[in-house]
Amino acid sequence: MWQLLMPLLALVAPGGGSFSPNRELLECASQILYMDQYAYQLPTNYSRNIPPGKNTTVYIGINVNRVSGVDENREEITLDVFLQVSWEEIRLNVPPGRPFIDLPWEFRQLIWTPDLYIWQLQTMRILSVLQEMASLRLYANRTVSVSIGATITIKCEMDFVLYPLDVQNCAIDFSSYKYTTEDVRFEWREVAPWFGIAGEQRHEFRLPKYVVTFVTDKSNHIRNFGEGEHSAARLQIKLSRELRGYLLESYLPSSLFVIISWGSFCVIPEIVPGRMVLLVTTLLSLVTMFDTVSTNSPDALELKCIEVWLISCTLFVFLALLEYFVVLFGIRYDKSWSRRRQDLRRAASAAQLAPPLHMNHSQRLSTPVTGTPQGGVFSPQLSVEDEGLKQQFSHQTIQRDSPILEAIPQSGSANGVWARICTSAEKGVMFCGAQHGALDRYALIVFPLCFILFTVIYWTTYLSEAHRAMHSTRYG
C-alpha cells in the first residue's frame, strides 16, 4: 500500500514538497488522482470494506473476443474476453460538469469492489501491450465500471460417451465468495452505456472441430456454500462438434469396407486365395481404423459412439469370413459324401450279380438262372430274393440333396432324437457345401438387410441421445 500511495502523496502535496507520511496519510489517502491530473476527494466517512448498501446489484457483462482452443484431454476451454463489472456506488460523486472520470487502475484498492469469484476458473491473465488492458471509471450517475481484457481458462466437465455426436454444456457462474444474497446480487447486463463497446457481440464461434455458442442465462441462480446462499450470474457455453469431418474420415470408409466384404459372396468358393485376401484385408483395415480412432479420441468411461460403430462393422466383416469357412467345410464334407456314394453304388452293382446271401451252397447250385441272349451274350436275370437285395442297396444310394445317415440303432427315444439332430445337421452342412452356392445367395440378401437395420437403429438411438444432451445442463 505504501508503494501505491507514495506517488499519489507526492503529487497532491502543496508545492511538491515532502511531508511525513504518518502525519499526512489520513489527509491525502482520501484523494484519488484521475486522468486529467485532478485530485478526486473521497468522502471522509468512506469505508472500502462495506458494500454501498443492502442488496447491492452487481451487473456482469462479457464480450468473448476469441476462443483460443478446446483441450479435450484436460477438459479446458481457453477464451479471450473483455469482462465488465459495474455497480452503483451512492457514496461517490463525479465533479460537477463531468460525465465521468477515469481513475488509475492501481487505486481500485481504495474503493469498495465486489469479490468476484468465477467458479470454473482455472487461470486468468490480464492482457497487456504497453500497459495492462484494464480500466476503472466513475460515471455521473454514481456507477462504477471495471473493464478488463484477459485470457481465461475455464474448467468444463465433459462426457465423451456420445463422441463424435457429443454436445458439451458448461455452466460458468459469476458470484461473490463472501457476500450472500442479502448483501450482493449478480445479474447480466449485456448492453450498458458505460461499456463503451461498439458493434454486435459474437455469440457463436466456429472452430475446426467445434461450434462454440455462448448464452447468458437471465434466471436467478443460487450457490450454496459457506454460511449461506450466494447469488450467481450464469453463462452457458455449448460445444457442439462438427460431424462432417468424422463422417468423411471414419463412418464412410468403414461402411464401404463392409459393403466390399459382401462382394466375397459373388466369388466362386473354390477360388480360396481371392476370396480370403478380400475378406482378411478388409478386416485388418477396420481393426487398424478402430485402433487409430481409439488412440486419437478423448477417453471415456464407456464405449464411445464411434467405437460402437467400428466394432459393429468389424463384426459384419468377421461374420462374412466365418460364412466362407462354413462354405469351405460344407464343400469338403460334400466331397466325402460323394466318395461314399460311389462306394455304395459299386457295392450295389456287385450285389446284383452275386447269389442271395441267405442261401447255402447247395441252394445256390440248384437255383436256376434265367436269362436271354442279347447279341450273342447271355444276360443273367436275378430271382425274387436278388430283386429285394437290389432294392435294399438302391435305398442306400446317397443323393446330394437328401443325404442319409448310417443306420443308428433305435433303442430308445433319446437315440431317435439324436438321430434326427444329426440328420438335420448333416443336411445343413450339405446345403452349405452345395456347388450351386445356396448359402452365398442367402448371405448376399441377409447381410445387407441386417446392416441397414443396424444403421437405422444406431443413428436413431444416438441422435436422440445427442438431442437430449444438447438441452441438458452440466455444472463444472
From TrEMBL:
Residues 251-379 form the Neurotransmitter-gated ion-channel transmembrane domain. The keyword Membrane applies. Residues 1-18 form the signal peptide. It is found in: Cell membrane; Membrane. One of its GO terms (molecular function) is extracellular ligand-gated monoatomic ion channel activity. The keyword Ion transport applies. Residues 41-220 form the Neurotransmitter-gated ion-channel ligand-binding domain. Coiled coil: none annotated. It is a multi-pass membrane protein. The chain crosses the membrane at residues 251-269, 276-296, 308-331, 442-460. Its main location: membrane. This is Glycine receptor subunit alpha-4-like.
